[in-house]
Design goal:
By secondary structure, the protein is mostly helical. The protein is built from 14 helices and six strands. The strands form three sheets. A two-stranded antiparallel sheet has the order 1-2. Strands 3-4 form a two-stranded antiparallel ribbon. Keywords: Cell membrane, Membrane, Transmembrane, Transmembrane helix. Its main location: membrane.
């Protein structure tokens, strides 16, 4: 107190006077003494653990969370009938072919491309493979014919994908246009070759009973084993090899990648060739499981595969994505479709639900991009 009886004023850190005895908040948030000298405890604080922040920042964590919620919902909605051993086997088997296609699409989308032709390439590869089988023993053909027919399917997909890659990389035609044209051209060639009718005797019985319906150790379908092996192999390639690093670099900034010495055009050709090769592998799996070329049954394969990759966290703008995310993304529509069937939802609503999920996934991707750009 001053001699006049008024409180003495002191300068605070903000440059404003404050009465003596008034507690001044400490910069580090520690308790400060009040006028009577007793400490004033700080307000309650909640700090998110570092490990939780790291998990939340991983795209696959969000996607896996959606998958877990779907499984939990259908398990509660249909107790005892959903997620039985039979359901798990069927979901995994039905997802196997789309997973193989999705692995190739993952590489394409990470380089900021798109491939609308995968379904038609699968059909064309199956038709050419089937034509060879028809003329070399048909349904009674042996492993020699099976091997050559499989190589024909793989080569068809590889060459078709490489041609599309050349048009994208060298001719500078937008990938949307190139692969849309490839979608129509491949399907048209398949229809010309077969007259629009599925081939009879296009699949060896040995292929169907071994790869198509056989199971490893009597438990795991061979289709699932093939899909798993393909996923692990190319997941490691994407995550740990120079090819994978170049894929991310080109998708993030193609011109920057070119300036540091990456052969961008050659890499794009290889990426589209890989997508075609895996479409060829998918055709072999399809023939083994369904026993027919199914010419009219693949018009929406491209949308299903792109949906899976985007749901898995890959960005349509390039530079981000993972094979692990694609695995999760493939199983979301598979679980959703199976669950809706079990609870009795009409098939048309299933398509609506999957479409809504895709739009939400793309919106989430754009929201993340805007947040990242602001932060």
């Amino acid at each position: 107190m001053t001699e006049t009886g008024k409180p003495r004023l002191e300068k605070t850190g903000a440059g404003e006077p404050a009465p003596t005895g008034t507690p001044i908040p400490a910069g580090d948030g520690s308790p400060v003494p009040a006028g009577d000298g007793s400490p004033v405890p700080p307000g309650p604080r909640f700090t998110v653990p570092g490990w939780a922040k790291r998990i939340a920042a991983v795209n696959e964590a969000w996607t896996f969370g959606v998958l877990v919620l779907l499984v939990a919902f259908f398990t509660i909605a249909a107790p005892g009938t959903f997620l039985t051993q039979y359901d798990i086997t069927q979901i995994a088997t039905n997802a196997a072919i789309y997973l193989v296609l999705g692995v190739g699409m993952t590489f394409v989308i990470i380089v900021a491309g798109i491939d609308l032709s995968v379904g038609s390439v699968l059909v064309l590869a199956a038709v050419l493979s089937g034509e060879y089988t028809v003329h070399h023993g048909g349904a009674e053909s042996g492993w020699g014919t099976i091997t050559v027919a499989a190589l024909i399917a793989l080569a068809t997909g590889l060459v078709w994908g490489a041609v599309q890659g050349l048009l994208v990389a060298k001719a500078k035609v937008p990938p949307l246009i190139v692969t849309l044209g490839g979608f129509g051209a491949a399907l048209g060639l398949a229809q010309i070759i077969t007259g629009g009718q599925d081939l009879t005797g296009a699949v060896s019985g040995k292929l169907q009973h071994s790869i198509g319906f056989g199971k490893l150790f009597g438990q795991i379908p061979w289709l699932v084993v093939i899909a798993f092996g393909t996923t692990v192999l190319f997941g490691l390639v994407l995550a740990y090899t120079r090819f994978g690093r170049y894929t991310y670099a080109i998708g993030s900034n193609a011109e920057g990648a070119r300036r540091v010495g990456i052969a961008v055009d050659r890499h794009l050709v290889l990426v589209y060739a890989l997508a075609g090769l895996l479409a060829g592998l998918g055709s072999v799996m399809w023939l083994a499981y369904f026993g027919t070329t199914s010419i009219a049954g693949h018009s929406t394969d491209n949308l299903k595969v792109i949906t899976a990759v985007v749901l898995g966290g890959a960005s349509l703008f390039g530079g981000r994505g993972s094979v692990l995310g694609t695995v999760i993304g493939v199983f979301i529509p598979a679980v959703l479709t199976t669950g809706l069937i079990i609870i009795g939802v009409q098939q048309y609503w299933q398509d609506v639900a999957i479409g809504v999920v895709l739009v939400l996934a793309v919106y989430l991707d754009q929201f993340r991009r805007r947040s990242r750009d602001r932060g």
